[in-house]
Design a protein that fits this description.
The complex is a heterodimer of chains A (281) and B (695). Chain A is mainly alpha-helical and 281 residues long. Chain A is built from 10 helices and no strands. Chain A has 2 domains: 155 residues, no CATH class; 112 residues, no CATH class. Helices cover 80% and strands 0% of the residues of chain A. In chain A, helix 4 runs antiparallel to helix 10 and helix 5 packs antiparallel against helix 9. The radius of gyration of chain A is 28 Å and the shape is elongated. Chain B is mainly alpha-helical. Chain B has 4 domains: 98 residues, no CATH class; 163 residues, no CATH class; 130 residues, no CATH class; 202 residues, no CATH class. The radius of gyration of chain B is 46 Å and the shape is elongated. Classes of the chains: A mainly alpha (281), B mainly alpha (695). Chains A and B meet through helix 1, helix 4, helix 5 and helix 10 of A and helix 1, helix 2 and helix 6 of B.
Chain lengths: 281, 695
């Protein structure tokens, strides 16, 4: 932990120093007749290409290009520096032209999604660990099905033993919709649980209270219900798992396609600016 | 860890690898098959086992990878047990779904393809070539609104951008070559035509002359610390740029209200090799004001106006500044009231002084006499008038003869006698020719001995002035008739006058007498001499052989008729030629000068706010705040150089009688947080005039 803190402190300080150098350098150049936008533009282009190369690096893991961890660190801090360069390049304001505005929007989308991805990759793993079981994302539907099967098995077993049990009806009316329900992603992301789960917990609590008054379930049914409740809690945790892991995977659906779009628009921007610049220095 | 052991149901044997493109269609329902789809996305459920019949029984063919032969074996079909059997482990078929990674790749590909297509459309559409213009893209690629002055351009992008004529491929090639692209600037010059032939040079100056202003030795450059940093970052790409495109300083598409001409002081100095921090800190002191009409205020106000009853009884001394200096209508500058109002009362008589020797005197006409020459003239006695000598020098043989005589120290040898005879005959022929051909004859002879691009225009101007002065009428008159009856304005019996010309009684001398200030013939003659003096000097590199130089020196001497250059200064232009400043304002007065000073706002600030019109006392008080007189003295050594040439050194001593304007006076207001200290408040970048960039 101490090594990690030290590394991050050094990286942040280095990034800030480079950012200050970039700002200072561009300020000095802006007081000459050399077009600052050209210089910052080219540096920004090189930075973006380097950032995009991280994706290619992952496609060629066998090449001796440094560790993936090193690339990730470089990707993060170069990405932060690119934002400084971007601000200098656009004069700290939104561009006027449509194409420039589109390019700036795509860049901000890439940068913003990268920031979100960085935040999630730094915080979600801890939340996932707190959930207990390590779940493979692709296996979540299988596990959910398994939970459903186990719940229904418990209910049926109880119904076979106790004639006239209210448990199957309780399952059909109150529990089954929760089991079949897709995760309430926003609630899981923000609060770590869903309001449906809280609603279900209240139902279960009410059922137990009624049972204590010997008005709903008997002791055997309550045992089965306790078993079902464990499975329902697993399902709730699985929903949280699915939501968090989805977020960890789906931010790349924005970040990576937008990066390719950014590279394409950047190439067009370079061609147009260079060809139409009129010989500005 | 087996499937059953794992709390999450992880099946190590059938682990779904993330990089697989397809997953079982039943995965979403939680019941995927154990086989999974093929790499191409087809369901393999039917292929898990193809039971084979050996004629006796059915055999399981399930591959080992999927579990090997099953214990149960295939179940023969009830209707045709020998033709068909069913695998007991056969799973329901599905429509395989793309994996998450595969979907991401697909989205990425689609977005990339859409972006690329958009870019290609833009590239094709932005070019003007008909085959590739798909749609109007100018609104898309325009980086922003134009400034107000340019927003009225109707021709579209092609009015300013040459790149619109490029094909998409050549446009891509411009990525590596755009800094050499000056075509766009040439399009700017289609409208902005007044920057001269060196429009893309720094300050529109001639490159040769510009080189003289540059300190080639980097060690001699005096750079401020911020400029040192800037040069360290950008090198000498600005200061050594041979051509500067318009876009270097003027960046368009910044909006309607954007000031295209704005530059910071540091940007101005990024080319210069001697820099300073600000106007108040390090700016060079102002140079002595180089005037076109020389007038020593100190000596006039201090001495001449006090003594005028004795010196010039008819003179009218001036009492205040605004008797001579009139504020222009735009309030920018003061203009002179003119010779008549300012100078004539004292100085006109000097111009019309007949007793002064004249550059145009055709005296020593005794060569025309048919009497034998008893004594061969030496160089001293052979003093041909300048105009006549130039006419004779059109013939190279005669020119050699004149040179030989002028170089000779002795007289009387035979060769000199022959030269004299030649000149005598040539003079006779000259007079006949001038009588017959008139102005054409003069032009023909002068064109043979003059040089340079301005020579023809100056010769034409001279001949026109000769015609107007009735010179050829005078020559064409018969001497006897002239003496008897063709006399106009005869001053006495011994002289005959026609126009501005007078033939003396001995008929050997024709004298030109200027009738007024700004005499056309005197001006055109001096202009020709000034121009040819420099042109011939460049060619011969020997003042001894440059008769134009000799004649010009004589013409501008203090003793010359009219003494024109006593007041009219002579400038040596950047191309080396001499130019007499006839007017108080330059011919290119409407062009922008390197430095500007607008008087009116400064006067308003300095005068009493309650006074709308400057009274004489207030005016003098205001003027003297900046124009401080220096000590008066009558004879200024700066007037004429020892060699007789007029002052053409721009750094020469002041000739106005006032001390140079002091920078410290301006600095009182012109600081960053007061009246501003931007370079462009006083200086213009585009000075487009060869005579303006002075050293």
């Amino acid at each position: 932990m101490r090594a990690f803190t030290r590394r991050r402190t050094i990286n942040i300080i280095m990034t800030l120093l480079v950012a200050l150098l970039l700002i200072g350098g561009s300020w000095i150049v802006s007081h000459t007749l050399v077009e600052t936008h050209f210089l910052t533009g080219w540096v920004l282009l090189v930075t973006i290409v380097f950032l995009a190369a991280y994706n290619l690096r992952k496609a060629f893991p066998f090449l001796p290009l440094g560790t993936s961890a090193l690339w990730l660190q470089s990707h993060i801090y170069a990405g932060l520096l690119s934002f400084v360069l971007f601000l200098i390049h656009v004069d700290y304001s939104l561009p006027n032209g449509f194409l420039e505005l589109l390019l700036a929007s795509v860049y901000l989308l890439v940068f913003g999604s990268g920031l979100v991805g960085l935040y999630m990759s730094r915080t979600f793993p801890k939340r996932l660990i707190e959930l207990g079981d390590e779940v493979i994302f692709e296996q979540i539907p299988v596990i959910r099905k398994k939970i459903q099967t186990e719940v229904e098995h418990s209910i049926l077993e109880c119904a076979q033993e106790i004639h006239g049990s209210e448990l199957p009806m309780f399952y059909r009316n109150e529990l089954y919709p929760f089991i079949m329900r897709k995760p309430d992603r926003w609630s899981h992301l923000v609060y770590g649980h869903s309001r449906y789960w809280r609603h279900l917990q209240k139902k279960l609590s009410d059922a137990k209270r009624l049972s204590d008054a010997k008005r709903l379930f008997d002791e055997e049914e309550l045992k089965a219900l306790a078993n079902v409740e464990i499975q329902l809690h697993r399902k709730h945790q699985l929903d949280t798992q699915e939501t968090l892991q989805s977020a960890l995977k789906f931010w790349l659906f924005i970040h990576i396609p937008a990066t390719y779009s950014l590279l394409t628009f950047t190439a067009l921007h370079v061609v147009l600016v260079q060809a139409w610049s009129g010989g500005a220095l | 860890m087996s499937n059953s052991d794992s709390p999450s149901g992880f099946d190590a044997k059938n682990y779904q690898l993330p990089q697989q493109d397809w997953v079982c269609g039943h995965l979403a329902d939680g019941g995927p098959c154990s086989i999974g789809p093929s790499t191409k996305g087809s369901c393999l459920a039917e292929n898990i086992c193809q039971p084979q019949f050996d004629g006796n029984r059915w055999h399981c063919t399930r591959p080992n990878a999927w579990g090997g032969q099953c214990h149960e074996g295939p179940i023969p079909d009830a209707d045709s047990p020998e033709e068909k059997a069913i695998c007991p482990h056969r799973q329901a078929t599905c429509q395989p779904a793309r994996s998450l990674r595969s979907r991401r790749k697909m989205v990425t590909g689609l977005v990339f393809a859409a972006s690329l297509g958009f870019c290609l459309l833009i590239l094709g559409g932005s070019s003007e070539t008909a085959s590739t213009t798909f749609f109007e893209t100018t609104a898309i690629i325009s980086p922003g609104p134009l400034s107000s002055p340019h927003s009225a351009i109707q021709e579209g992008c092609q009015a300013c951008h040459s790149s619109i004529h490029f094909s998409p491929v050549s446009m891509i090639g411009e990525v590596w070559d755009s800094h050499d692209n000056k075509h766009q600037s040439e399009l700017c010059l289609n409208c902005h035509r007044d920057f001269g032939e060196h429009a893309m040079n720094a300050h529109n100056a001639d490159p040769v002359q510009l080189t003289k202003f540059k300190t080639r030795d980097p060690e001699k450059a005096q750079l401020t610390s911020d400029q040192l940093w800037a040069r360290a970052l950008i090198g000498d790409r600005v200061s050594n740029a041979e051509k500067l495109s318009c876009a270097t300083c003027h960046q368009e598409h910044q909006g309607a209200d954007f000031d295209l001409t704005h530059l910071t002081n540091k940007q101005c100095q990024s080319c210069h090799e001697n820099t300073f921090h600000s106007f108040s800190d390090g700016h060079p002191e102002f140079e002595t004001l180089r005037v076109r009409i020389r007038f020593d205020h100190s000596s006039h106000f201090g001495q001449h106006y006090n003594n005028y009853p004795f010196l010039m009884p008819s003179g009218i001394p001036k009492q205040s500044c605004n008797e001579c200096h009139l504020l222009s209508s735009d309030g920018a500058s003061y203009q002179l009231a003119g010779f008549e109002a300012m100078c004539s009362s004292c100085h006109e008589s000097q111009i019309l002084d007949f007793q002064m020797p004249t550059a145009l005197r055709l005296d020593q006409f005794e060569f025309l006499k048919s009497q034998p020459i008893l004594e061969t003239p030496s160089a001293k006695s052979l003093e041909l008038p300048p105009f006549m000598e130039l006419m004779l020098r059109a013939d190279e043989e005669i020119a050699d003869a004149i040179d030989s005589l002028q170089r000779s120290e002795t007289s009387g040898d035979e060769s000199q006698a022959q030269n004299v005879a030649l000149i005598k005959e040539a003079t006779r022929s000259l007079l006949i020719e001038l009588k017959q051909q008139g102005a054409q004859g003069v032009a023909h002879r002068l064109s043979r001995i003059t040089r340079g691009p301005k020579a023809n225009r100056l010769v034409t101007s001279l001949t026109e002035a000769l015609v107007q002065s009735r010179f050829f009428e005078m020559l064409s008159k018969n001497n006897k008739n002239m003496k008897a009856k063709n006399s106009e304005n005869s001053m006495n019996d011994r002289e005959v006058t026609i126009g501005s010309w007078t033939m003396l009684s001995d008929q050997s001398t024709v004298v030109y007498r200027p009738q007024q200030h700004a005499d056309p013939l005197s001006k055109s003659w001096l202009d020709l001499m000034a121009n040819q003096a420099s042109s011939h000097y460049e060619e011969t590199e020997s003042p001894d052989h440059n008769r134009f130089d000799d004649f010009f020196r004589t013409a501008v001497s203090p003793e010359a008729t009219g003494r024109c250059t006593k007041c009219h200064t002579v400038d040596r232009l950047l191309d080396g030629s001499l130019k007499i400043n006839w007017g108080a304002l330059p011919a290119d007065q409407f062009r922008r000068q390197f430095s500007e000073f607008v008087h009116r706002p400064h006067l308003t600030l300095m005068q009493d706010r309650s006074t709308s019109i400057l009274s004489q006392a207030v005016e003098e008080e205001v003027c003297l705040k900046c124009h401080q007189p220096e000590k008066a003295f009558l004879s200024r050594s700066a007037f004429i150089l020892p060699d007789g040439m007029p002052v053409t050194d721009f750094h020469h001593a002041n000739s106005t009688g006032y001390l140079p304007i002091q920078r410290r006076d301006c600095v009182q207001c012109h600081q960053l947080k007061m009246a501003g200290d931007n370079c462009l408040q006083c200086h213009n970048y585009h000075i487009h005039g060869s005579s303006v960039l002075r050293r």
